[in-house]
Amino acid sequence: MVSSSSHPSFSSAPLRSPTVQRDSRRAAEGRRRRTGREQTADWKLLRRMSMEGDAPHVVDMTTSEKVVELLNQAALLGTEEKLTMLKQVQELIINKDPSLLDNFLDEMIAFQTDKSMEVRKFVIGFIEEACKRDNELLLRLVANLNMLLRDESVNVVKKAILTLTQLYKVTLQWMVRSKAVTERQEACWDMLTQMKGDVLALLDSENDGVRTHAIKFTESLIISLSPRTSDSDVPKRQDADISLDKIPKDHAYIRYDVLCEEGKSALEQLLRFMVHPAISSINLTTALGSLATLARQRPMFMSQVVQAYETLHANLPPTLAKSQVSSVRKNLKIHLVAVLKHPCSLDFQAQIGTLLLDLGMAQSEITRATPVPREPRKRPRHEQYPEGKKIKMEPALMEDDEDKEEPAAASVSKPSPAPAAQSAIDLTAHFLHPLLNPENVANLVLISMVYLPDVMPASFQATYTPVESAGTDAQIKHLARLMATQMTAAGIGPGLEQSRAREGDSKEGLGEDELSQELLIKRKVPMVHGQAISVVGSYGEKQPAIEVPLVKKLPEPILPSTQTKLPGTTGRKKVFRLADVVQPLLESQIEKLTSTAVKRILNSEKTIAQSGMAHIRVRLLSRLVTQFEGTMKEDVLGFILQDIRGRSDLAFSLLYQEYNAYLSQLPEGLLDGYDHCLYTLLSGLQEKPEQRDGLFTKLVLEAPIITESALDVIRRYCEDESRVYLGMTTLKELIVKRPSRQFQYLHVLLDLSSHEKEKVRTTALAFIKRMYEKDQLRDYIEKFALNYMQLLVHPNPPSLLFGADKDTEVAAPWTEETVRQCLFLYLSLLPLNHRLVHELASVYTEAIADIKRSVLRVIEQPIRGMGMNSPDLLLLVETCPKGAETLVTRCLHILTDKVPPSPELVERVRDLYHKRVPDVRFLIPVINGLEKKEVILALPKLIKLNPIVVKEVFNRLLGTQHSEGSASMSPLTPGELLVSLHNIDSTKCDMKAIIKATNLCYGEKNVYTSEVLAVVMQQLMEQNPLPMLLMRTVIQSLSMYPRLGGFVMNILSRLIGKQVWKHPKVWEGFVKCCQRTKPQSFSVLLQLPATQLTSVFDRCPELRDPLLQHVLSFTPHQQAHIAPSVMNALEACDKPEVKPVETPVERRVEAAPTPAPPVVVETAVPPPAAVKAKTHIVQPMQQTQPDPGTDDPVEEAMDQGGEDMGVQGKPDPTMTQAEVPRPEEAATPPAETTEEEEEEEEEEEEPMETADPEPPEVNRPIGDGDGDGDGDGDGEVEAADGSGAEEAE
Amino acid sequence: MPSHPLRVAVVCSSNQNRSMEAHNILSKRGFDVRSFGTGSHVKLPGPAPDKPNVYDFKTSYEQMYNDLVRKDKELYTQNGILHMLDRNKRIKTRPERFQSCKDHFDLVITCEERVYDQVLEDLSSREQETLQSVHVINVDIQDNHEEATLGAFLICELCQCIQHTDDMENEIDELLQEFEDKSNRPFLHTVCFY
């Protein structure tokens, strides 16, 4: 592109070449061109010609035309062709016709903003070539180069550095050549100096390639800014060579000493760069090469170079890979050989040789590479280049080798330089050498063993060569030197101290020679210590005055009008400097970063596991998380809980770490973190579905401390029915294995023993029972159990039982449930420790009735478990605290329920009964253990009890209680029992009860077989006086066993012999019996004396006719046997006169007992006792009628009997005495009763509410269940019924 | 990615087998490639290990081919030498010696360490002028046909990767590390300057 304005025309029709354009172009060119006028004319002409003809115009064009053509084309083409065009242009205007250079400079430079970096690179190359061709162009182009040095493309920057490397030298030469320096030249130089500083700074670039180029630039700079000496290797091409020695010390603008310092500072930078621990392998290689070049071209630096090599060799950067180490070592070797070959290496041959040996080079090769000393020269290997003041006039163009001798001679007197660092190493090495005896070395080896890394570093592996000459002096020296190098690098060692000390000494005491040396040392020391002399600062300080104008004067880049780029946007990049980049993060950012970092570690689980470093990850995570606050703890915990089985190691690690954190700040440390961690883990496990791996247990048992909240979780775990066993096992382990807090854990377990869930409760109880065997826990458990039981004395259940923790009472009444809750633990302990039973007794006495009932219900199992031989139980029976009678009774019942009572028990009960509490009910359970006499004695009382109790008594006595019954144990046979019942004194016990009791006997048909009854009747009949109930029994037996009829007839006859009529009651029965057994009984009746027979007929008139008929049916002979009086009696109905005869008999009969007539009289005002005494003979039989609730077979049988017997009485109730009280009785019981009746009633129905001194409640459990309750059908009754049924069983 | 194709030199000892194999493949893949030997002579296997056929670098592949055909066509057909020479002559006329070439490259790949050393020695002995960098990489390849083929593909892949880097000098270190891991052989690598 020629210019921006012309561009459109060219693009549309490049070949038309309008005149306007050409004119404007010419005008522009005319300003600059020196010799272009004719050419322009020619061009114009040719142009026109070419337009007219078809001939290929390019061929015939002038150079200038060609350039224009090419430039125009280049502007339109793609990168490739553009470059081709531009290269042609460059060739044309630089080499073919340099006169055109100035003309087309702007056009060429305009391409520096091209999009393609290749084009930009080309422009840089063009600048270089142009400036080399015409140094004056530097004035204009250096600024453009400066711009390109900041290009965004690293390739452009690199190219710019390369060009700068060249142009710096070119400019320096040009400056030196120019005798009169113009202001623009000065500005140009200043800019170049500034660019030089920029490039040196690029040593810190973040781009490897840029750094590499910066190194090469530095190398070139150092060489330029240091004097060439006689023994310098000299590049063969001399054209661009410039060195410090060619710079006149009186130059108008350039300061020799400044440049000298700049050169040294650049070397320093390079050396410092090289020891950077993270240097890349390419940079290192480059730097090694640069040092070799330096050493060869500037032998004065050789000692520093060799020392740098030594240091590097001993400290290869750890960042290098194995193959890189090999590469670097190979380079090192090559460069060392190159240095060694230099004649000035003489002083360093030993060191270089050692290094090369270490690098694996054969001694022979080393020797071959070692130059033969050029002897005759006595002077030092290289000259000390002079300090600023020395003026050396040297023509700029005198560059012959021969000339070099002269400047060298000028500094002949300088002593051989032993730079401070070098000597420091030497000194230290000397110091070390004698110390390296076998013992010390062995110790050193042993000590350093500790610090050896786990894995052999790549650099070591590569550098290791077996020590061939171990122990020789040479090897020891080498070792000493190696160590000295390291020590000096680390800033320690006597050598360094000495040189420092020397430095610190006042210089007055030194000789002049020494002083000069001292100056030298002083100057170099900073290099060793890394105290940089700022490149910029070094001249900035010295030229403060011109700095301001300098700004103005700085060359401005040629900026094409199309240029849009700003220098500021160029891609100059700096190496990472922490301070520049870092700014404090926001709190939230920090949090986010840390948590994401932790998450990454978390999520790398698998990868790390594969690498086998999982344990390190776990440790790392747990440490991290415990150290910092924030959400990551939650993250980690959540992560663990996702797969707690797989991540248990992390869980444990975290837990321990938390505990550790707590311990480390102990006095005021808080357990919060630990607690939270443990709690979360345990809850997580607890909430997870069933696991069988025991991780929960493991976690609990391995946790250093169980906190309160953790204990809560354990408790919850135990409450889970599916895991209760596991949970309690854990708890048990805790109790056993953590004695210091075992009661705390035990308490939880104890608490659970009254849990509402049965499974939890029973498991807890089972565990507690086991614990109870341990002495140290026993007291606590016992106390707990008793305390709990003690709650029963409260009138209302404490809220404790409802889960509240305050010991307050709530209004709710005691229920079966709550009562049980208080007793579970106690009851399960009871069989283990019988002594506890006394506590129960004392609580029992204080408790309210409801509780007592519940207690009685629940104690069965444990009491049975204790057994009747338990001394404590016996003691309880013996002592039987006041109020605990029912309890004791209940115990007795439980004990004897299935097994016969032991003699001891019987003994205690008997004692109790006789001496303390004469309640016959005590005897019932042990009744079979009593003696016959005792039983008989107790019978009257027993049968007065509630019918069901009586039934139970009889069951026991008759052995009908259970299948495995203890009938044989019974002190009474069934017959004896029945007989005894008959013999009960009716003054001690009312007939009604006795009849009921006998009825019970009859109910047991299995026991009371006809034989038994026959025997009983036999016995009774033989007694004197006859038992009152004899005939009732006979009738009963007969109705049960009709085949006993013959036997009964026999009995009846014998009764006649015993004058049965003298016993009114029996007589009455006798008559009834006869009546029921007619006609069988006719023969018996006929045996009666006539009087009595009449009496019979009086009582039972309907007998007379059948009997008469019977007699009449007799044969006359038989009739003859019948006494006439009898016959009279038989016919008495026809003979009224018989009656008077009978009356006295009747009177006599009735007089004896005397009850009957008064009964009739007294019906209006019935004295209860009399009613009892007289009416009950019949009454019981009829009593069954108003009691429809009973459907007992026994009762049925009685019903029948009663009906039979009452057939006659019913239709005419006034007929018999017995029936007289009946209406009264039938009417009274429900409504108005006499006192006694009431008492009776009460005893039957609700005995315990009375003021009965005897155990009030006992009737409940024992004898309750008379379903005719008066309507208090609440829960208690029902429950009581239930338990009553149980007992009946 | 550098817009200009990499200028690659592949160097082995005699510029016959390994460098030519790589030369062949690389040029097919469009690289600006040249091949060289570093030995003082071109040596080809002879009838016995101690009797190699020795030529100087001026001898063309064609001439060598004819020479060997004349000497023992059977043997040199069987051991593949003739085939190799036939291929070589279709790539270029004659072997070239690296030390004699003054052209500049971006990348020099050597096929064995000895060659690498020689290349380095040569490059560092040259006078530095432009300070343009050249990366020298050694890929050890045994001198037989199979290894040469395998090695050529490795070199080709390496070159392609380097060609595709945005900034070769900045990325080559890492790239080589990856390649080392991948190919399981160490590479020597250095940079020299023209």
UniProtKB/TrEMBL annotation, chain A:
It comes from the Eukaryota. GO terms for cellular component: mRNA cleavage and polyadenylation specificity factor complex. Residues 1189-1202, 1233-1255, 1265-1289 have a biased composition (Acidic residues). Keywords: mRNA processing, Nucleus. Residues 22-39, 382-393, 499-510 have a biased composition (Basic and acidic residues). SUPFAM superfamilies: ARM repeat. This is Symplekin.
Automatic annotation (TrEMBL), chain B:
It comes from the Eukaryota. Coiled coil: none annotated. InterPro entries: RNA_pol_II_suA (IPR006811). Its main location: nucleus. GO terms for biological process: mRNA 3'-end processing. One of its GO terms (cellular component) is nucleus. It holds the Pfam family Ssu72. The keyword DNA-binding does not apply. It catalyses: O-phospho-L-seryl-[protein] + H2O = L-seryl-[protein] + phosphate; O-phospho-L-threonyl-[protein] + H2O = L-threonyl-[protein] + phosphate. Belongs to the SSU72 phosphatase family. Protein phosphatase that catalyzes the dephosphorylation of the C-terminal domain of RNA polymerase II. Plays a role in RNA processing and termination. This is RNA polymerase II subunit A C-terminal domain phosphatase SSU72. The gene is ssu72.
